[in-house]
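Predict the structure of PTS EIIC type-2 domain-containing protein.
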Amino acid sequence: MKKKNKFFKDLQKAFNTGVSFMLPAVVVGGIFLAIALATGEATDAGMEVTNPFMKNLNDLGAAGFAMMIPLLSGYIANTLAGKPALAPAMILGYVANNPIGEGEVQTGFLGAMIMGVAVGYFVRWCKTWKVPATIRTIMPILIVPVLTTFVLGMIYIYIIAVPIGAAMDWLVEVLSQMQGSSAIVLGLVIGAMTAVDMGGPINKTATAFTLALMSEGVYAPNGAHRIAVAIPPLALAISTFIDRKKYTPEDKDLGISAFFMGLIGITEGAIPFAVKDIKRVLPAIIIGSAVGGALGMVNGVEALVPHGGLIILPVVNGKLWYFLAMLIGTLVAVAILHFTKLNIDDIEKK
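Done. Here is the predicted structure for PTS EIIC type-2 domain-containing protein.
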């Protein structure tokens, strides 16, 4: 039992450390993107930033977001196994957050967390090897990083990513079959899929499905999806505003950034909160997004561009219900967080 408790305490410490190193990238990326996108124009390709200065600001924000998942993965592994684990985990975190392999699979922050933990324990094992002194000097900078990246990278690409890609193809087929059935069920499913991995493969599957329908002139599923993308960051932001005892000072600061990310439809603003308390945060935002998606579908909301948040309100059919569905879904998630999340003092006593 003690070993089991130590394992989970090590993981919790690693996740918290990963989040703390990731936070500046989230904040920088979120603020820059919010400012840049606020000046953009809604087009068929999404929000398009045309001002040259704002384009540069948008690129800086995108760079911050590109770095946040590798930082998360890297410092999870670094906490578990030290410096030799940092580079391999950052590389594999980047791989997890970007399309790779024949199926162009990406697993997002969940995949990056798994790879961070895997790298940490693999490097710990490597450190137990008995090798000659001459080889031991090059172990941390050559042998361990190369071997770790190769072995775990191949396992990820050929063993982990392949079934995920097949599952995503199956999900698209299921959604296609549901398209002509109950609007409320389809809205619930799209909303839940949007929040479950916040930019990962399930979220991207919902995006691909709604984009395919948009090309056929069907915009309601995209409306549900674009309502749902804003709910996780908005819910966590509002929760930090009203339930102050449940969040650390850095969480409260991040809540401000998450609020603006929610307004412009960047779901990833909720990721740091989910990493730190996944068993309470994830159910809350999944349910809230599902409610928002269902309300949007039932009331015929149509988003005419592939972007989300209140920033696209001018190009939405059914503006009132777009706003109300987003608000109600957000408040549902906030209420669940209020009743399920522990106060910081209670967590420290455990």
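The first strand starts at residue 41 and ends at 43.
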